[in-house]
Amino acid sequence: MVTTQSYPQERIARELLTQNRPLFLGVDGKGAAHYWDSYEFTVAVVAVDGQAETVELSETPFETLAEWCEYTRGERGWDIGPHVGGSLIDDLVQAVNA
Length: 98
Hints:
single chain; globular
């Protein structure tokens, strides 16, 4: 059975961002989920308790999403992800090599 239900953090991110289906980047070391809106160049960061914020890359010292992900890695670490800058093929190759 296919389901279209999203996780609570994803539903919150959808409310904050323009893009109907923001890209799931990953979950940081504090449990916050990060979602990317490529229309607005904005990251939604949604904590486990539902607290959320959006961060426009233009308002940060980072020029790219990859730089944001590296910043997050240094500040909080990543428990899942980040899923950035690759393709499905890259993901499959990485999984096979793991």
